[in-house]
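Both lines are given unchanged directly below:

***
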Amino acid sequence: MLTSYPKEKINILLLENISKRAIEEFRRHGYDNISTVSGALSESELIEAVRNAHILGIRSKTKVTASVLESAEKLLAVGAFCIGTNQIDLRAATERGIAVFNAPYSNTRSVAELVIGSSIMLIRKIPDRNIAAHKGLWLKDSKGCYELRGKTIGIIGYGNIGSQVSVLAEAMGLNVIYHDVATKMPLGNARQVQSLTELVSSSDIVTLHVPSDGSTRNMIDENALSQMREGAILINYSRGDVVDLEATARAVTAGHLAGVAVDVFPKEPESNDEGFTSVLQGLPNVLLTPHIGGSTEEAQESIGIDVSSKLISFLETGSSNGSLTVPSVALPQQEKTHRILHIHENVPGVLGEMNMRLSDLGLNILGQYLKTNETIGYVILDVEISLSGEAVEALKSINGTIRTRLLY
């Protein structure tokens, strides 16, 4: 694809050890001006680093604030090479017409497998046996250790990961129930229950797979924990603030919970060199892991390909499919045309003004697609080649224009 802006001038900045598959994908499409940083950057460091970047790639630790976006005058898109986007100021990105892409499905299998693995480890009390064996103690005892088969797992959040957990759990012989704010079609013999109370009181294992928002923060609190079965297991591989860890620690200490696995925490270290503390440290039959639920080679490769492909498509065709900020628009390529991308404030009359100005130029529109969200509108235009330069200048001067780009 020959774009109007030479590929060798597109600056790509990738942070936090993003998979080499992403770099390979960019280079395969002719983008060689790629800078990489092994870790996350502070806000001030990122402000300096991103000034000349057209594409920014991050994972979960880099905070892309409004100040960062304001300093990034050339930035076209941000790729979150992970599932979550809480680390990005999406409102500020939307207002500046910066597309944000993530990989909501790419590490689903990795997280689901870890849930099942942790369930086996906890129900057999392997963490305590492992520690004892390392200390030279021989705790050969079956008391309080069980098989998964025949037990009930309760899944809170039946989305991409929750439903995959459901499939694997049923294959292990578990009975599956789930609770979700929306009515979801069950997979296999899983059964949806209507309330959180019904789920936690009916499950031997409770696992959470929900986003962090006002309805989910501390949803597993003192009250919810008290409603769980005596000897139940709690697993949280979703978001750090959906479980009250202090209340959980008390439930473990009191013997009400038989096991806990946590991979995400309300406050996490900024780097591997920073110390980590949790109220759950040192408690029996507790698995603590450093936010590695989706950290497998396969998942990172899949994420690298997924997000880089979306970024490349946005660069080369203007397609915003999968963007969390710019409205989702895709227009098939047409021969012997020039393509113009126009992002504007979502106010009445912009499209009419665009068409009027192009008509005044005597320009024939060969293809056009518009989509809006609450904040901005995004138009892809295919126009005849002869007057495309004049068309870009005409569109730039329309009131409410955020950015205009001649793609090719």
Notes: The first helix runs from residue 20 to 28. The longest strand covers residues 338-345. The chain has three domains: 1-107+296-326, 108-288, 329-408. Residues 319 and 330 are 4 Å apart (CA to CA).
